[in-house]
Design a protein that fits this description.
alpha+beta, 2 strands, 93 residues, 46% helix
């Protein structure tokens, strides 16, 4: 669980986390859709440079997402389902 989130907010978000964790991947279409929607890596990390010097660093914003762990788990379930079905999952890596 993300330690940056207030405990009250964590309690409020708990049902959504549980719902995301309970999603079953049981068909190709759902698995492909999840793999396409959930990125394999955090896309927002950046270094802002000026005259070849780093002015500041923007951290990966995925870590600030309170559902980050559940989304990664869901993507993993989808990839596992496709791999066990004999699909080539390298296009999603």
């Amino acid at each position: 669980m993300n330690i940056l989130v207030n405990p009250i907010v964590q309690i409020i978000l708990l049902p959504i986390r549980q719902w995301l964790e309970s999603i079953k991947v049981n068909n190709y279409k759902k698995a492909h859709t999840l793999c396409q929607l959930i990125p394999a890596s955090c896309p927002f990390e950046r270094n802002i440079t000026l005259f070849k010097r780093t002015i500041f660093h923007i951290p990966p914003l995925c870590k600030l997402n309170p559902f980050y762990e559940q989304l990664v788990e869901l993507r993993f379930k989808a990839l596992t389902y496709l791999a066990e079905s004999g699909e080539d999952v390298t296009i999603y890596c």
